[in-house]
Give the backbone structure.
Amino acid sequence: MQGKSRRKGIALAVIIIAAVVAAQMFRGGERARAKTPATPASVPVKVVLAHRGDLDLTLKVIGRAEAFSTVNVQARVSGQLQSLLFTPGGQVKQGDTIVRIDPSLLQAQLDQALGNLAKDQAQLDNANTIIKRYQPLLGKGYVAQSDYDTYKANQGIYTASVKADQAAVELARTQLSYAQIQAPFDSIAGAPLVYPGAQLTANDTSIVVLNQIRPINVTFSIPETGLDGIKATMARGKVPVTVNIPGSKGAAMEAELNFINNAVDATTSTIQLKAHYANDDVRLTPGQFVEVSLPTTRLTNVVTVPVVALQNSPLGNFVFIANANGTVEQRMVTAGPTTGAQIVIEKGLAGNESVVTDGQLLLVDGTHVHVVTDNG
């Protein structure tokens, strides 16, 4: 019994000693951790420099593409439509023959005019021969003055007839040339409005509509309040106009402002403008809706940052600024106009500050950060 009690006592003493040692080690570890400060977490962010300089405000409106020129092709002579030499919806070149009218009647009129000219020319030649023959005899008294005067009058009559016949020939020849209609410019042909066999009336019957689309116009209207800014921009030089097709993934098209209407529409308080676009790629079709943006008022010596940098709070707008010591500062700012992806900061920034554009949700004033790039 005494041996068992002694062994129990020894085991209890070992457990107590182990507990004491463990407690001391734990306290030592706690003291060591207390002496080593915890390293704060660093938040990855993206930054850009606030920019100070001039900025053109941008006006965005909806517009439409408009053919540079539109021609409603009509016959200049009456006759039966013989053939159409264009593909509906296809391209035609300037000078290409696109319509033929039956030339039979016009050719007959020309032949008749040529016949009259030949007849009167023969009579004129005869009158000239008579005058040439009798003029020397008049002075010798071999020809009566009255007869000579008659010959002279006939010469004048036939000369006038020949001139009239020549004019009639030119008219008939011109009329005959109208039996073929040429395209006045490079264009796109619409659907035929009449078909071969139809009777055409001069200057009345429409045959086809041609639209010139290279170049093409982009027509849009702006509020009259933006007119002063547009005129100021024009005074500095050419005004670029950016054109986008809604929903298109293609690059924006760069046009140039070339027309401001001469009056404001009093019913809408807007004024019509047009921009010129080369349209060599034929991306625009007349009547097509487009999104238009163009510079208006120029702000000088202003600070701008990306719109995504601006944050909101109950106290107002603010941005996070990345400091050189690796922390961020929450800076209250006053925002101004927005143009594109940039916003003007009227108060709060001097320019050249490193402004956070991504990662703001994990930030508060004084948070440690490290800057990352798009490449990681």
